[in-house]
Recover the amino acids of this structure.
């Protein structure tokens, strides 16, 4: 189970690396913010897997905080774009 | 390896599959609305399947409840931010370019015609 979880975490990190490409290319700013949302969710998944792998219960709290803070970035982006309009 | 570990491994593998296809859709799809469609699959199903797969590995009920709480928060956050992004793209950005290849095709033809005129006999 330990080796399996390690492989899964590496696969998710490679997926995160592929998710960098829309940030480079993305025609509009909204596309780049979509990549930011994907990073939040993938980060939560990686943190949950790491907490189970290392048996560290505190990392679950870090995943919870990341899941709470990730939408604030998008809300701030949309509010800022509405103010500039 | 007992049956509980097998269940966890299957669920986590399915979650990774959904994450991968969501990222692939976000890279490959043409406009922002279809990208949003691909991303919500990764958000809800991928994270949910990984959380379900990790549930039997938890040692306490508090930890299991915390995992489910993380999943519920991620679902709510995904719904809110997807609505905000779609509304932003609908109101401020331009039209979704359904016919982007149609724009490039006549230009390409015109350019080749001009080149043929310039470099003709």
């Amino acid at each position: 189970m330990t080796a399996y979880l390690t492989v899964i975490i590496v696969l998710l990190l490679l997926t995160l690396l592929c998710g960098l490409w829309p940030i480079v290319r993305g025609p509009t700013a909204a596309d780049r913010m979509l990549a930011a949302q994907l990073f939040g969710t993938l980060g939560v998944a990686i943190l949950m897997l790491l907490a189970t792998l290392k048996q560290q219960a505190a990392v679950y709290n870090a995943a919870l905080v990341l899941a709470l803070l990730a939408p604030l970035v998008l809300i701030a982006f949309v509010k800022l774009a509405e103010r500039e309009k | 390896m007992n049956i509980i570990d097998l269940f966890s491994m299957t669920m986590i593998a399915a979650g990774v599959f959904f994450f991968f296809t969501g990222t692939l859709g976000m890279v490959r799809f043409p406009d922002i609305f279809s990208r949003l469609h691909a991303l919500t699959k990764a958000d809800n199903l991928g994270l949910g399947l990984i959380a379900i797969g990790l549930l039997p590995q938890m040692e306490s009920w508090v930890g299991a409840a915390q995992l489910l709480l993380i999943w519920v928060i991620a679902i709510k956050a995904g719904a809110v931010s997807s609505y905000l992004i779609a509304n932003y793209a609908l109101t401020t950005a331009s039209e979704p370019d359904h016919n982007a290849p149609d724009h490039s095709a006549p230009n390409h033809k015109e350019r080749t015609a001009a080149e043929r005129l310039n470099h003709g006999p």
